[in-house]
Design brief:
This protein is an alpha+beta fold. The chain is 23% helix and 13% strand. Strands 1-4-5 form a 3-stranded antiparallel sheet.
């Protein structure tokens, strides 16, 4: 077995054997599978517990003890380390966030007032009243003659 599959999420956390999301620095605690289909099944199970996660398979080489060697770039930097270095946590090349010019939730437009005394502006389409037809006198006489 030269490689195994581990599961990672969008927060650069890794699934542990006890189904918890950890930072991935302790390779002995990580969920791993040498079979891709087993890892995919575990990915679906983890995603059903929390549908907001974006889980990915990560193929890792194994060390001499059979533990996954997670690449450093997959581990990411802890937030404390990035703040201590004075680096922003924004990815390079990411678009800058612009505040909205108006927030419709904060400044809603007033709804027009409708009073029940006023008739509606547009009258609803009603079918014309249908009156029962009176039989013609001539038809009545011809029926009585027969």
């Amino acid at each position: 077995m030269s490689h195994v599959y581990v599961l990672t999420n969008q927060h650069q956390q890794f699934l542990s054997k006890s189904n918890e999301w950890i930072d991935g620095r302790e390779a002995i605690r990580l969920f791993r599978s040498e079979y891709k289909d087993v890892a995919i099944n575990q990915m679906f199970e983890a995603n059903t517990r929390d549908v907001s996660l974006r889980i990915e398979l990560l193929q890792c080489e194994v060390n001499g003890k059979g533990q996954p060697q997670v690449p450093e770039d997959a581990l990411g930097e802890p937030a404390v380390k990035a703040e201590a270095a004075g680096e922003p946590e924004i990815e390079p090349g990411a678009p800058e966030e612009m505040p909205p010019s108006t927030n419709p939730e904060v400044n809603p437009e007033p709804a027009p007032e409708v009073t029940p005394d006023e008739p509606p502006e547009v009258a609803p389409d009603e079918p014309p009243e249908i009156e029962p037809q009176q039989p013609e006198e001539g038809a009545a006489k011809s029926n009585s003659a027969a």
